[in-house]
């Protein structure tokens, strides 16, 4: 659990990781997207490394917790 009361926008919260067993520049890279739970756009994700950031202040009085769904895709470049 992360205490959001002391975080400023653009603070790094956590990092999602995934690997592609046959990764190479020829076969593409892993990309990350927040697909659910970010209805007020409080969070941003670095699509290349999976780091999730606080995009704007959250108010614990309004919402006590957040559950984010992150989609991971392997984009092939042929």
What this model shows, in words?
- This protein is 0% helix and 33% strand.
- The chain is built from no helices and five strands.
- It has strands at residues 12-15, 29-36, 43-45, 51-54, 69-75.
- Strands 1-4-3 form a three-stranded antiparallel beta sheet, with no helix packed on it.
- Strand 3 (43-45) and strand 4 form a beta hairpin.
- The model has no long low-confidence stretch (mean pLDDT 83).
Question: What are the key terms here?
Answer:
single chain; 78 residues; mainly beta; 3-stranded antiparallel beta sheet; elongated
Give a short summary of the structure.
It is built from no helices and five strands.
Structural class: mainly beta
Spatial strand sequence of the major β-sheet = 1-4-3
Number of helices: 0
Number of strands: 5
Could you estimate the helical fraction of the residues in percent? Answer: under 10%
Record the SSE blueprint:
Elements: E1 12-15, E2 29-36, E3 43-45, E4 51-54, E5 69-75
Antiparallel strand pairs: 1-4, 2-5, 3-4
């Amino acid at each position: 659990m992360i205490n959001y009361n002391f975080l400023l926008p653009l603070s790094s919260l956590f990092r999602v990781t995934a690997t592609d067993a046959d990764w190479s520049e020829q076969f593409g890279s892993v990309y990350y997207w927040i697909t659910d739970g970010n209805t007020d756009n409080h969070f941003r994700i670095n699509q290349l490394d999976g780091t999730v950031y606080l995009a704007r202040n959250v108010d614990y009085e309004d919402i006590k917790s957040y559950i984010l769904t992150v989609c991971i895709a392997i984009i092939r470049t042929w």
